[in-house]
Amino acid sequence: MDPEFLKRLQEAFIEEAGEQIQIIRSCLNVLEDAAADKAPPLESLLRTFHSLKGSSRAVNLKDIESSCQLIENALVKCKGDESNISRPLLDRMHMYVDELHTVIVRLQAEQDPQSAVLLAIVATLANMPSTVATPSSSLEPSTTLEPKVIVTPVEVLDDTATGSFVRLSADDVASGLQRSASMGMIGTTVRLKVNRVEDLVNGAEELVYAKLVSDQRYIDCGDLQSIVNQWIRRWQRLRPEVENEAQRRSNPGVQTTSANAGSLQEFLDLHDSFVGKLAERIVTMEKAVLADRRTVGGLVDTLLEQSRELTMIPFSVLQDLFLKIVRDLARDQSKSITLKIVGGTTEIDRHILDELKEPLLHLLRNSIDHGIELPDERVAEGKPAEATIELQLSTPSSGKVEIIMRDDGQGIDPDRVKRSAVEKGILPIDRVNEVSYQEALSLIFKSSLTTRGTVSEISGRGLGCAIVKDRVEQLGGTVEVFSRLGRETKFRLTVPVRRATMLGIAVSVGGRTFIIPTASIRAAVRARDQDIRIVEGKKAIIFHERLVPVVLLADILSVDSDKPIDDCTILIVGSEDYPIALVVDDIYGEQEVAVKSLPVPLTKVRNVGGATLLQTGDLAVVVDMNDVLTSAILVGTIADLPHRAVPRLETKSRPMKKKILVVEDSITSRVLLKNILESAGYLVSVASDGQDGWEKVTQDFYDLIVTDVEMPRMNGFELTGKIRKESNMKDVPIIVVTSLASLEDRRRGVEVGANAYFVKSNFEKSNLLEMVKRLV
Amino acid sequence: MTSGEGPRPPDIAGRLEAQLRRSILKRRAVKLARPLDKPEIPPGRQYVLFVLSRQTFAFDVNYVEEVFQIKSVLPVPGTPPYIVGIASLRGPLISIVDLRHLCNLHEKAVMGSDKTLIMRNGLMRVGVMADDVTGLEFVPDSDITTDSPIFSHIPRRFVEGITREGTIILNCSNLFTMEALEVNE
Questions:
Q1: Cβ of A611 and B76 within 8 Å?
Q2: ipTM, 2 dp
Q3: Is the pLDDT of residue A391 over 50?
Q4: Is B35 helix (H, G, I), strand (E, B) or coil?
Q5: Which of A258-262, A378-382, A588-592, B96-100 comes out lowest in average pLDDT?
Q6: CA distance to A142, A683, A695, A716, B70, per residue, from A729 (Å)
Q7: Among A305-319, A545-559, A659-673, B54-68, which range has the highest average pLDDT?
Q8: Can you name the residues that pair with B159 across neighbouring β-strands?
Q9: How far apart are CA A103 and CA B172, in angstroms?
Q10: Does residue A765 carry a pLDDT above 60?
Q11: In chain B, where the domains are located
């Protein structure tokens, strides 16, 4: 086959398979719902697998083709007895879909798409009973620990003026699937690549330029009019004189040629009518330009609004992902959980939704890991064994969407939060009793705070809630937490529906205008009113009772500015824990800006986030505050400046490089770990197994130890236990990195005294570094 | 068959006569035709000529999109000197490049004009500032020498060659690439 054609075919297949995976997952979820009618989803499943089989044959993916056939065979047997589809069969299908997904991802990355696993998963299906032999009318008591996740019929509160309710039942979901699968009506919908839509939106945004231009034309007309008016006024003053002169000349007594005199008079008349017409035409044109400006403005605004709406998608696209996560985690932790999603049809800009995905997953994991108790604990508390997590979406006011995530777990214990905050130095111990319940709850948004004794792979790293807050605030939203101890935990997120234009403060530095995102500014003060002091050769001010280093934005941007610092304005930026006083020449005020990325060949310019068109029509550079806050000048200042609290001013030495020991038998992993840690500025020693590690520990001092579990001679658990019991650094933080992911192993790690547990399969550089940073 | 005989009804005799006339004229034309004085156009290209630091340069016209009067260029802090800044080209943003820094010609600080050549090479689209844009000219390939020492101060890969008149022809396909121009910190 023509390779070019095959490639195109494969691209189409990847897209199609992606959708089919979605459909299969939705159908499986409906099939698991005890209350739902199972016939339509089964029908839909059969059809989907059938077409998947056909399309995979077309692109020559034999594994998928034959595995689909096996599934089809198994599913056909369930027909007529849909309500009794066996649990193992459904579990297999879930496994299959997950594996299929990875195969598709591999295919997309142009890797070998062969998968023996696919076939292995379904190979035994033929022998497996497809349905449960007897309907479980015996009504087993609810002590079964079988994890359970169901899609409950979703009730959507439509908050338009009609106030009507739309009820979306499982049947509707299934029949909706049917519709989308079978009735691809030509001409009613068009499938488009997202980037094409975004090009369109960008194009529409560029039309703002047309608006600005017509504004300018209107101003031009005004200028022209005033010039002509000046001319008319001067002419009116002079006119009698010129007319007299003309008449005098045309007087027969004067010596002149009559032809000349007549033409002068004629010209005067002509001039009058000409200037009059000119003034009139300018007024007409001004009116026309004004009308055009209104029309263009209206059209551009409408187009912009409509095109931005093109990128809005319903929240429910995340539904299946959330259901899967809840399902998987519930099973791993032997918990029984129902996830309810209310208002899933609420539409949100896809960028915002994308940004929200991770924070919501964090909260969901947190809730399952910390909040939800085991079924027997719940029963003991007098709660139903099955826990409920509810995600409720609504649009309380236009442009905002509110997401409430509520679970009926054990709630958040404010005393534990306070204790942890005291330990971490976030809360001074003498203030513990002044902190209200609500204040204590909001402490969980501080970075590095967790109520968990140990760090697990799922949550408890103490960064989750801080990340949620950061991300939501970056989007221009807010997040709040409520809790009733022993009863529920509720998070309320409010975010803008659309990625609106950003709010920025226009500042001047060295005579140039820069835009600083408003969201990054905590306060603005006049430098004159501040007591700028010199600490260890660096400027600093006292702000809110803490010492804040002072840095000139001009220095960071390498722009010349000679304004005396006393006449400047200071912006307090940076995080709450590490504020920075950024000096700018002047601030002009806040405005809405649409940030454009820099044009080629400027891929990334330090400290620059992009550019924007100001209301004046001029361009301005938008400052990238992340770069500014990590710039070398600033880092130099902070490193030299203690800024926890004022009293600790005098003593501070340069921080020493922290020493880390990596114990790992696999050379690849060892080198990888070493590189990651060294690039983050740590001093790294390595050991090739537990015994080697133990020898190193007895010879030298380390700030942290990272160890693998499965190693020859002495494994990681033994090493950890030995260090805790026998070494002279019993308190050294230990992170266990391993490929073992079972609950049993985790418990073992905790028992022998590991501080954190990290699973290789979820191995992400940043996570490890965050963990290390926290523990060192 | 053509039917350019006007609104008259079809007239077979008339049409035949017209055909005959045309074929006679054609035969005469063929007979009278003779080769042009210049044998044929030699292989070569059209170039856009522009002046930079009193030196005339040339770009292959296929890479030149237009000549634009840039009103104002916004300098971007943290960029190398060959990036003058960014400007709005009727809406979209475009980077403006100062070739003098890439070709080691440091003569005047200020450009002699606001004329900017908008260059395109694939996805790369940048503006090049010039002291003056002097016009379009056909240069036969045979007029271009590639081993002249005159342009030794300009990186060799940016130069295609030099013409008999001393115009330096720049290599657009090497110059307007991410490799040559990218800023990525």
A1: yes
A2: 0.76
A3: yes
A4: coil
A5: A258-262
A6: 49, 18, 13, 17, 68
A7: B54-68
A8: B170
A9: 43
A10: no
A11: 44-175
Q: Measure A625 CA to nearest chain B CA, in Å.
A: 14
What mean pLDDT value characterizes chain A?
Answer: 76
Q: How far does Cα A407 stand from its chain's mean position?
A: 23
Pick from B77, B90, B93: which is nearest to A599 by CB? B93
Which ranges constitute the DSSP H helices of A186-207? 194-206
How large is the average pLDDT for residues A645-668? 60
Structure tokens at B13: 């005799």
Q: Does B29 touch chain A (CB under 8 A)?
A: no
Q: Is the pTM of this model over 0.80?
A: no
User: Beta strand A569-574 with A521-526: parallel, antiparallel or unpaired?
Assistant: antiparallel
Put simply, the answer to whether B123 touches A600 (Cβ < 8 Å) is: yes
Q: Which residues of B touch A206 (CB under 8 A)?
A: 91-92
Whether A682 contacts A772, CB under 8 Å: yes
Helix (H) or strand (E) holding A154: strand A154-157
List % helix, strand, coil for chain B (3-state, nearest 5).
25, 35, 40
Q: What local confidence, expressed as pLDDT, does residue A185 receive?
A: 45
Tell me whether residues A605 and B185 touch, CB distance under 8 A.
yes
Q: To the nearest whole angstrom, how far is the Cα of A206 from the nearest Cα of chain B?
A: 5
Q: How far A604 CA sits from the closest chain B CA (Å)?
A: 4
Backbone dihedral region for residue A736 (phi beyond 0: left; psi -120 to 50: alpha; all else: beta): beta
Q: Which among A599, A606, A611 has the least Cβ separation from residue B185?
A: A606
CB-CB contact of A154 with A168 (8 Å): yes
Type of residue at A75 = L
Q: pLDDT: is A547 or A115 the higher one?
A: A547
Q: Which residue of A has its CA nearest to B183?
A: A602
pLDDT of residue B94 exceeding 90: yes
Give percent of chain A above pLDDT 90. 6
Tokens 């007299």, located at residue? A244
Banded pLDDT at B83 (limits 50, 70, 90): very high
Cα–Cα distance between B55 and B168 in angstroms, integer? 8
The whole-number average pLDDT for the span A676-689 is 81
Q: Which residue bears the tokens 């070493």?
A: A674
Residue A598 in contact with partner chain B when CB distance is under 8 A: yes
CATH number attached to the domain at B44-175:
2.40.50.180
The whole-number pLDDT of residue A135 equals 40
Full DSSP string of A433-474 = GG--HHHHHHGGGSTT--S-SSB-SSS-SS-HHHHHHHHHHH
Of B78, B83, B90, the CB nearest to A558: B78
Question: pLDDT for B128-140, tens place per residue?
Answer: 999 899 999 999 9
- The CA distance from A341 to A404, in Å, is 10
Distances (CA, A) of A406 to A33, A389, A392: 21, 6, 8
| Type and span of the H or E element at A103 | helix A87-108
